[in-house]
Specification:
This protein is α+β, with helices and mostly antiparallel strands. It is 56% helix and 13% strand. The protein is elongated.
Length: 776
Amino acid sequence: MTNNQNQSILVSGESGAGKTETVKIVLTHIATIESSIFGTVNPTEDTGALEQPEIVSKILKVDPIFEAFGNAATLHNNNSSRFGKFTSIYLDKKEDKECGFDSVYSVAGSSFVTYLLEKARVVSHGQRERSFHIFYHLLNAPKEFKASVWDGLKDTTQESFSYLGSTEINHIDDRSDSQLWEEIQISLATIGFEGERMISLMRALCIVLQLGNQTFSPDPHDAEGSIISSQDELLKLSLLMGMEPTVIEKAITKRKVKAGFEWIEAKMTAVDSKDSCDALAKKIYAQLFEMLTESINESTAPTDLDVNINSSDHKYGCISMLDLFGFESFKVNRFEQLCINYANERIQHRYVVDNFLSVKDEYEREGIETFDVSDIENSAVLKLLEGRMGVFSILNDECIRPKGNAESFVYKLKTIHRDSYKLVVKKLDRPWEFGIKHYATTVKYDARNFVTRNNDQLPKDVLECVCKCTNDIIRSRFETIAIERAKQPTGIRRKMGATSATVCTKFRTKIIALMEFLLTSKIRYIRCIKPNENMSPHTTDHLVTMRQLGSAGLVKAVNIAREMFPNSLSHDKFWVRFKCLTKLNIDENLDVKEQVSIILNEQFKDKLPSSGCHDCFYRVGATKVFFKPGQLELIESRRATRKHKAANIINNQAKAYRKKKNFLTLKRGAILVQALARRKKEQAELKKKKEVVLAIQCAIRLARARRTLQKKKEDRAATIIQNSQRSRIARKEYTRYKNAADMLVRAMKRKLNRDKFDAALAVVVERARMDERRKK
C-alpha cells in the first residue's frame, strides 16, 4: 500500500483445504492491525483486548451470514463454501505522525462479490451431506420464534422437509445449530434484519422448504398432465405465500406456450412439474442470497463508493481476497464443474502470465533460449471454452433453441472443434459426454442438464405467480426480475438478450471483470493443501497432498522454474557492482557486455563443466545478465568476502590510528593524573605537618594555660582560706564581744528588775502590815 498500489490475494485449493479459514485469518490480521493503531483508547473490560473500530467489527460480524446461507456440510468438509467470494477491504490513507509512521491506513469499509452459488444443493444433496446451514439453524431456533415465523414450523424437524431429509451431522466446528442460530441472529441484526424484516426472511426460507414437500402425480383425467397430490402441503405453501392453492398448482403444473400469435396452455408431466417446482425453490434461495449480499455491501461499504469490481475511480486503497472453488474432477462432472474449472483456468492463466510468460517474453527480447511452457500454458483451453464458437457460445445457442438438448450441444461441439487437441473425443463416449484437457488433468463432462441449468430464467407464468406472493422480500425481488425481463429486446435482437441472461454468460462476465481488476493490483497467491481426506488433525497423506499439488499445476510450475534464471542484473549495474572482483586489467573502452563477460568467465573458470560452457550457470543477454539459482549469491558472497577483506584492512588502520590517538591521550592524561596525585600527596603531607605543629603548639599553650590556671586556682584557694580564717577570727571576736555584752545587759536588767521587785515587795509588805494593823 505504501506504493499506492492495490493488493490482491488469490486463495485456492480443494474443498476442505482451508480457503475460507485462510481468508478469515487475513481479515482478523487486518482487524488486529487496525485495532492496534486506532483502537488503543478504550480496551474492553472483559478481556483487556483492544476495542475494534465499528466498521471493522461490522465486517467481521457479517461473515457468519455468508457461512449460514452459502456453506454446507459435504463429504470433504462440514463447513464447505458452496460459492465463490471476492472480498475487498477499502483503506483510507491518514497522516498520523503520532503512530510512528509517515502515513497509516484505516479500514473505511468493504464490499463482497459472490460467484456461482450451488443452487442445486437447495433441492438435493448427497448422503452424509447437508443442504445450506441456515435451514438447520432455523429448525433449531427456539419454539417461540419458530411459531412467530409460521405456525407450521413450530414442531418441525429436518425430517419434516424433503429437501433436508435425515442426517447425523448436528455440529459445525464443535458448535451446535442452536448456538449458531444465536450467532446468525446477531449478524443479521447488524445489517438491518430485525423484527418484521427478519420474520419475512425466515418465511421466505420456509417457502423454499415447503416447495420441496410438494409431490406430483399424473392427472387422473389426463395422462399427459399432472397434479399436486400432497394437498395438505400445498395448503401450507399457499398460506405462506398468501395465494390460492389453485393459482400455485396451475403455475407449476401448466405452461403457457405461444403458438403463432396465440397463447395456448400446455400441460406438464409430473417429472417436469417437479423440476419446475425445484427450479422455483432454487431461484428464490438464490435471490435471497443475492439480496443479503447487497444488504451487506450497503451496510459495510464506504458511503461515497460505488461498489463495483471494475470501479477504481475512488480515493481508497484496496486489499482484495478471492476465495474461489478449487479445480474439480469427479466421477460425474456436470455444468457446475465446467464453470468452476473455467474459473480455475482463468486464474491459472493469470498465474502463468505473471510468473512465466512475462519472463519468457523478456528472455526472447534478450536473445536467450527460452523454456517450454506448453505444459502449463492454457490459452488453447480458454479459447475452447470462451472463444467465439467455444463451449459457452454453443451452449447459449442451444439454450435459445426451442428443443435444445445435450446430445445436440455435444455433437455441435465435437464437430466445430474436432481439430482442437484440448477437446477429448472417445469412441466409447455417450452422446452427451465430452472431455476437456485442462491444465490439471483431463475431465469428462456429462452434458445432461447443461441446457436446463444454464438457462436461468423461470417460465413466465411461474414468475407472474411469484410476483403475487405476499412476502415482501420475495415479491420485490421477483417484480424486479419481471421488469428486467420485460425490457429484454424482441425480434432480431432477442437472441443477444437471451444469451446475456444465461448462467455461463453472467459467470464469464464476472470472471473477466475480476481479471481486469486484478491487472490493476499486486497479486499474491495462497495455495491451501488438504493434508488428508478424513479431516484428521496432525496427519498428512502424501498421496492426497501430491494429487492436490498436481491439480494446482504446481508440480509442472516447479519443473519449469528449474529451467528459469530467477536472478538478473543489467550490464551497467553488474559492472559497477562486481568490477572489484577482477584482478585483470580490463580495457575501459570495451563494450560493457564484453567487460561483463570477462568478469563472469574469470569468476566461473573453476566451475567450468565438461561441456566447456557456462550456460548452466548464467546467460549474458542483450542488456542483462541472468543467473541460475544460487549463482548470483555465489558472486555476491565473493564480493562480500572481498569487501570484507578490504574493510578489515581499513578497519585495522582505523583501529591503529584510534589506538595511537587513545594512547597519547591516555599518556597525557596519566602524566596529568600523576602530577595531580603528587600535588595532592604533598598537600596532604603539608597539611599533616601543619596539623602536627599546630597540635604541638596547642599542647604547649595548653600546658602553660594549665599551669597559669593551677596557680590562679591556688591563689584563689589561699585567698578563700585567708578570708575564711579572718572571717572566723572576726566572727569569734564578735561572738565573744556579743556574748559579753549580752551578759552585761542581762546583769543590768536583773539588777534593775531586782530593785523594782524589792521596791514593790516593800510596798506589798507595807500594805500587808497595814492591813494586818487594821484588822487588829
